[in-house]
Amino acid sequence: MKVLVIGGDGFCGWPTSLHLSDIGHEVTIVDNLSRRNIDIELEVESLTPIRPMGERVRVWKEVSGKELGFVNLDIATEYDRLVDLLTELRPDAVVHFGEQRAAPYSMRNDKAKRYTVDNNVRGTHNLLCAITTLGLDVALVHLGTMGVYGYGWSGSAPIPEGYLTVKVPTPDGDLAREILHPANPGSVYHLTKTLDQLLFAFYANNDGLRITDLHQGIVWGTQTPQTALDERLINRFDYDGDYGTVLNRFLMQAAIGHPLTVHGTGGQTRAFIHIRDTVRCIEIALNNPPERGDKPSVFNQVAETYRVRDLAELISRLTDTKIANLPNPRREAAENDLVVSNNRFLSLGLNPTLLSEGLLEESRDIAMRYADRADVSKIIARSVWRKGMEVADDLVK
Amino acid sequence: MKVLVIGGDGFCGWPTSLHLSDIGHEVTIVDNLSRRNIDIELEVESLTPIRPMGERVRVWKEVSGKELGFVNLDIATEYDRLVDLLTELRPDAVVHFGEQRAAPYSMRNDKAKRYTVDNNVRGTHNLLCAITTLGLDVALVHLGTMGVYGYGWSGSAPIPEGYLTVKVPTPDGDLAREILHPANPGSVYHLTKTLDQLLFAFYANNDGLRITDLHQGIVWGTQTPQTALDERLINRFDYDGDYGTVLNRFLMQAAIGHPLTVHGTGGQTRAFIHIRDTVRCIEIALNNPPERGDKPSVFNQVAETYRVRDLAELISRLTDTKIANLPNPRREAAENDLVVSNNRFLSLGLNPTLLSEGLLEESRDIAMRYADRADVSKIIARSVWRKGMEVADDLVK
């Protein structure tokens, strides 16, 4: 089928585009290269040497014999070009990764907060509006986040896949009602994904759009079978305090012999998934879209959960590195449990890679292999959730 | 106190500005005059002859001796000027009416949908961001809508004031949890107010902003004691299919001898409040802000509920006019009940004007008095909620 991948130059978008191309779909990437521009702004780079889009597309053709389309287009600010592209291409499916996706970046300052809200909400809404106006019958798959749910909201009940049936007290007794899980976003970035959910619910209900929202955990791993075919196809590995996930920053610290820096007690539990499983989940979601008239379909895109300090200990043992504790700049509980339902993907055939199996490869083939490209000063997270929570300079190497 | 009224040139904003000035507050209006520009776009005008802002401000000085500030500024697109203004003024309170507020307009076409989302979300978020960045301790009062709740969601229970305690099933038994009432918006306009709620919840929680969200019903009535002091201070009366409420369109039809056009069965129940009570509610909200750290405070700003066909019958009797039925272009149930809690305002002293008391004045002093200014072709609502629901031309006079 014809698939448009919006944000196809990014960390999830690029390997997804290659995977979908590899299994025979006709893929066109739409990207405004914002992720590369933010690297310039933050004065950081992917640890792995990523190539310009033109080269990526050319090498993929060399290696696989398949064509990848690429259009440099900003869906948030170039609505008319988006409409023209959809009109010309008439895709069967659209995968939407085109949002600013780092929580720390979204909390840096008012400029970054505003960019995150304006870019993410406008982009998503423009896309919904264009599909509706053109009357296209597409399966829309959007990357959400586990962060829409918050932590510990539903007590000992596992976090459901999007929807929750609650009892509403009325004079005639309790009324059972299915609700979208209440929004508990922990950053402006996460907030935008809770806004997206309401946009999706409206356009599914009013206009019959067929939408799947994937609430993804923290993605780890760098390579998929396709990105590993040629070094010029390599995927991003971000290790900076804004875009690097906790796991990548641990791996990077270990690779350069720096203690693993745990914020707070490290008692925060987080959900994880390997990038190889992300691309498989997108494929599964594309093959199982909701019907016209259905509410948005929600999957929790996670493989397992880990407490941050347990993750640090796992990497510490694997790499023989010490652990150091720093203050936590986020507004969150020091300790939380996290039990997540992920039955929908498992029942559709996902057999996930676990951290205990894949971390050694990641440490050896990525973090250590490219360690000489690292800028050590960028590893610590400097964004603060509110004033007075800055990390002291003497804690930062 | 120093109060900034954003959207102070509009139908609710103008009388609110005069009321707050009248009771001794130092009022500065911020407005980009978008409401007047949309009139130009739609080729309609307020039935009542409204004056330019410069004249309005001058006449208010003549009549009351009080100064009103006015700054022509678009909070959605001129963030830096907004920051400069807040820095210079350091207001104690901000009343935020600065959003596109017509549901039919928001459904006209993709341009209007996108304008509504971009303008409303960006404006509200810019304001929250600016207040946070400057560290201002202001009471922020925002005009929401009863439309965030939808109709009939909670069965026989009255619609609560913003929050609802529900029971969440867990393996350890039911867990009581207070949630924001689930969002059930009926148009893109209403959708934006549900997005605002999530923005407010986040900034109240993360940054301690003190926010009151007023879920208002349909406002009727034109004049307040202040706008009635001089004809040059008169408030707007919109009767067109986009911005005119059902009530104003009935009054206008009656004034020109056209049958009252009821969409569908007229079985939709709606909540109403007089503009005189709107301005009083804003005053009460300003005097009763939440504390720093509180969740956003929500009031239902309504006086009474009416079924549309009963309202038509009330006006039909009052003016001796026939009733005609048209198809309903909205996606909604044909009939609904509506029971609303409005205890918070009543307990704080609001003694509302009811339709049965004030409609005659409205019909005689506004609709009939200015009937020769009406453009009859504009009364019928032409926006459709989705394709295929257009009103046939032969139903429209």
Protein described:
Two copies of one chain form a homodimer. Chain A is α/β, with parallel strands linked by helices. Chain A contains twelve helices and 14 strands. Chain A has a single domain, classed as NAD(P)-binding Rossmann-like Domain (Rossmann fold, 3-Layer(aba) Sandwich), CATH 3.40.50.720. The first copy, chain A, has a seven-stranded parallel sheet, sandwiched between helices. Chain A has a three-stranded mixed sheet with strand order 9-11-13. In chain A, strands 6-7 form a two-stranded antiparallel sheet. In chain A, a hairpin with a 6-residue loop joins β6 (163-168) and β7. In chain A, α8 runs parallel beside α10 (308-319). The interface between A and B is large, with 53 and 53 residues.
Short key terms for the protein model shown above:
seven-stranded parallel β-sheet; Rossmann fold; homodimer; three-stranded mixed β-sheet
